[in-house]
Amino acid sequence: MEPMLLDLVNSRIVYPDGPRDELGTDAAARDWLRSRGYEGTRTEIADAREVRAVLAAVIRGETSTAALAPWVQVMRRSARLTGDGLSWEDDVPPGRRVGARAVEEWASLQGPDGSRIRPCAAADCQHFLVDHSRANARKWHSMEICGNRAKARRHYARSKETAAAEGS
To answer: What would the 3-class secondary structure string for the chain be?
Structure first.
């Protein structure tokens, strides 16, 4: 399965003309979950909505990682011997499977140099990004959108300062 954490935390963005929420209705949430390998049951929908809010708050630093405990505490793996060797199977209650997967993906992005998942640095952006750069220094979810706007604002401010200095 493809990673889903970034899609999940970016599935609700509030724009000036209103929110865009890919989990906003049960039908939309069911489609979203099914496209990611889930059944789209009511418990999965509730779990996805709940973990999304908690992970967004954790990633933004608004709450501690302890808020992830409801998913971490139910995560279990069982080993099974097969003809090909040992296989590991997740044993998570149905009502926490979506969240457990998202929390596991989040945990894999934590490291000694900090988190690889973070909010976009643009003050007017609500997107999250996963930084795959060697230096772990990426700032914007999109260089074309947020990065260019930030650079344009800095250029405008420098131009204004230069013009003011030359005018004095």
So the answer is: CCCCHHHHHCCEEEECCEEEECCCCHHHHHHHHHCCCCCCCHHHHHHHHHHHHHHHHHHHCCCCHHHHHHHHCCCCEEEEEECCEEEEEECCCHHHHHHHHHHHHHHHCEECCEECEEECCCCCCCCEEECCCCCCCCCCCCHHHHHHHHHHHHHHHHHHHHHHHHHC
pLDDT in tens, 45-102: 999 999 999 999 999 999 999 999 999 999 999 999 999 999 999 999 999 999 999 9
Chain position carrying tokens 């998570």:
92
Instruction: Give the pLDDT of residue 54.
Output: 98
Task: Return the pLDDT at 51.
Answer: 98
